[in-house]
Amino acid sequence: MSTISEAIVKDHRELEQYYNEVINSNDHDHQQRFGNQFTWELARHSVGEELVVYPAMEKHMGSKGHDMAESDRSEHHKVKLLLKEFQNMKSSDPKYTYKIKEIWGLLSQHIKEEEQNDLPALEESLKAQPNLSESMATSFGRTKAFVPSRSHPSAGEHPPFETVMGLLTAPVDHVADIFRKFPNQTVSPNPSTK
Ligand SMILES: [Fe+2]
Ligand SMILES: [Fe+2]
Predict the structure, then answer these.
(1) What is the CATH number of domain 4-193?
(2) Which of 91, 102, 118, 119 could form a disulfide with 28 if both were Cys (CB 3.0 to 4.6 A apart)?
(3) If you measure from the C-alpha of residue 91 to the centroid of ligand 2, how many angstroms do you get, rounded to a whole number?
(4) Cα(20) to centroid of ligand 2, in Å?
(5) Considering the entire predicted model, what is its pTM?
(6) Structural domain boundaries of the chain?
(7) Closest-approaching ligand to the CA atom of 140
């Protein structure tokens, strides 16, 4: 059983891998598949954190947790606005690589803060309750299965509004995912089928 930090870090490494696949390739088809995979993973990862991780910071870490969560939400919002532009671009667009690099500039900084400051502080505050971090990892995994797979910055970052918007937009996203190209090794990019 993994902790919530381990689940989050695993996602971060996957995102980095998909990003590298896009920027290190000249093959538009390859770039489109991994660009779509990046969008899909980042949209779900962000909403998963907003539903499971940031509320837990507020619940278990007092005012420090509240400030941390608010700062993380505002960083997510900036990334989502860029992701919304990127997700509608074709990899043949000369600005395709530029746009994902712009996203990665903000995102890599945010990831670093989460891994170096936020997650260790959260784990420390969860310590007193056995298995809480592990059960949060399970919730995070489940949440990612039904949240939107595209960026919807207008939905906001605060639950429960995000939850409601997520449920409204998710089925539409998942239908559209069927017609999008993904890396060949992806078994099913459509979480709504699970
Ligand atoms: Fe985040
Ligand atoms: Fe994250």
Answers:
(1) 1.20.120
(2) 91
(3) 25
(4) 17
(5) 0.88
(6) 4-193
(7) 2
